[in-house]
Specification:
mainly alpha; 3 helices
Length: about 50
């Protein structure tokens, strides 16, 4: 089963000092997949100059 992203604060709670007593507000940030959308792959590379 795939891992359900819980947001940065919950995913790294042990490293950030977040406990069960902490109030956590999250928008599920940081869950962007590490890949480019298909339409960007077809775009020509930009060159400087």
């Amino acid at each position: 089963m795939a891992h359900l992203w819980r947001g940065v604060l919950r995913e790294y709670a042990d490293r950030l000092g977040v406990t069960d007593a902490s109030t956590v507000v999250t928008l599920g940030e940081g869950g962007t997949p590490p890949c480019r959308p298909r339409r960007c792959r077809a775009a020509p590379a930009r060159t400087s100059g």
